[in-house]
Design brief:
disordered N terminus, 53% helix, 252 residues, mainly alpha
């Protein structure tokens, strides 16, 4: 019993709770001591298995929460709410989500010509022979490309940088496929490269850097007109504003 009490003390608050789990009736100290010892031995026999099960479930849940935090705009609390909702109310939806994510990650790749997302080696836009091969539009993301395409104001081809220059974040020309852009723009067919990066500080710096490099190679390099609000992300701008900006584009 003395050893059991020592182990209970080593377990901290949980040991103290277990130590009080069997009350000691008055006048029966020996019997109560034996009952308390058997109780402690019983709980200590099952607790490791319970803790292992709880720890396994906790690790799985934490991994799910951490994975959800990779989504933009999702913090710890939001990630926890999403995780609890999927596990408690929509397990079928969770399976569909995980399957769709795994399928997209394994099948979606970068287009060999324009660097956008596609399931083929060359995307559908780059395979369209009715487009004007002398025009090339440079965007930061595939979402920006989709917005411009919806305006129906541009009939050339695209190149998607998949980001913008940000030295503080370690994003340089190599990370935005600058070498591929130069090869694409200087293929002998392209005459005009429209810089359709965002109007944030990073987007402006990216446009300036690319514009200087391409103008040195004899290309016409206009920038989107200021119809787009300063500091706005292009994918959130309405289609009419983007169309107007394309019609009023100017040389940088």
């Amino acid at each position: 019993l003395a050893r059991a009490n020592e182990r209970s003390a080593a377990m901290g608050p949980l040991g103290s709770l277990l130590n009080r789990s069997v009350p000691m009736p008055a006048g029966c100290s020996e019997c109560s001591s034996m009952e308390r010892l058997h109780s402690l031995q019983y709980f200590r026999g099952i607790l490791p298995a319970l803790f292992r099960q709880f720890d396994h479930a906790y690790r799985a849940l934490q991994q799910l929460v951490q994975a959800l935090r990779h989504l933009p705009g999702i913090g710890p609390k939001s990630a926890q709410r999403i995780a609890w909702h999927l596990l408690q109310h929509d397990r079928e939806g969770a399976l569909q989500l995980s399957g769709a994510l795994a399928d997209a990650v394994s099948r979606v790749r970068h287009c060999l010509c324009c660097n956008t997302f596609t399931e083929e080696e060359v995307c559908e836009t780059c395979r369209d022979t009715d487009r004007d091969a002398s025009l090339l539009c440079v965007t930061e993301t595939p979402a920006d490309q989709v917005v411009i395409e919806q305006t129906m104001a541009f009939k050339g081809y695209y190149f998607v940088l998949m980001g913008s220059l940000s030295p503080l974040d370690g994003v340089g020309p190599k990370e935005i496929a600058f070498d591929r852009l130069i090869r694409r723009a200087t293929d002998g067919l392209v005459k005009e490269v429209v810089l359709a990066t965002g109007f944030s500080s990073e987007g402006e710096a990216t446009a300036h850097y690319i514009g200087e490099m391409l103008k040195a190679r004899g290309l016409t390099v206009p920038r989107l007109a200021r119809g787009v609000p300063v500091g706005a992300e292009l994918e959130y701008v309405d289609v009419g504003t983007v169309a107007r900006a394309f019609l009023d584009r100017r040389r940088s």
